Amino acid sequence: MSELKAVLWDMDGTLIDTEPYWIEAEFELAALHGGTWSHEHGLNLVGNDLLTSGRYFREHSGVDLAPEVIVEELLDRVIERVRKEVPWTPGALDLLADLGRAQIPCALVTMSYRRFVEAAITSLPATTFSVIVTGDEVTHGKPHPEPYTLAMARLGVGADETIAIEDSPTGATSAEEAGALVLTVPNHVAIPASPNRVEVASLLSVTATNLASLVQQRR
Hints:
The structure is a single chain. By secondary structure, this protein is α/β, with parallel strands linked by helices. It is built from nine helices and six strands, in the order βαααααβαβαβαββα. The protein has helices spanning 19-32, 39-44, 50-61, 67-84, 92-101, 114-120, 146-155, 169-177, 208-218, and strands at residues 6-9, 106-109, 131-133, 162-166, 181-184, 197-199. Strands 3-2-1-4-5-6 form a six-stranded parallel sheet, with helices on both faces. Helix 3 (50-61) packs across helix 4.
């Protein structure tokens, strides 16, 4: 395990499958304000910085609200759903537990805002994530590398000692540009192949040993 110093997790679509919650909330918000929306538009927002998504929603839905207001209204709706049920992705909790046993620190690197993150991971032990980076505390969101670079700096690890887990092209680009090896787990959208990306169908068969081996092979 010595080659692997940290695992950096995306949240929406990777740790928890909340993308359907977001899309449902988008349809609700569009209908409430007399706009229109589509599933295709919803998929175009997967992995984006929330304000980028807010601007896209305003442009394509016909809803005349400020992007910041759109984001907060969507967050309210998604948080309400998450408080009723957290849709963990298959294998995610087992992998988190395995990494904990191996004493490999984890960071959560998400474009969701902190108030949503707190609602989503409230059932996890407080020590699960050593570092949490959220979209409302970075200047540049994914696909910019800043979120992952910040997480590595807070953990005190180098990029070649980490592996990021992502479900979107936007997130994979962010982690890759920060120098991390990326384990991609496509969920709702396809992720282009890259020399610094390793794709798996799900996290069900992934272990801490697997991740350490990937980092060792890369180095």
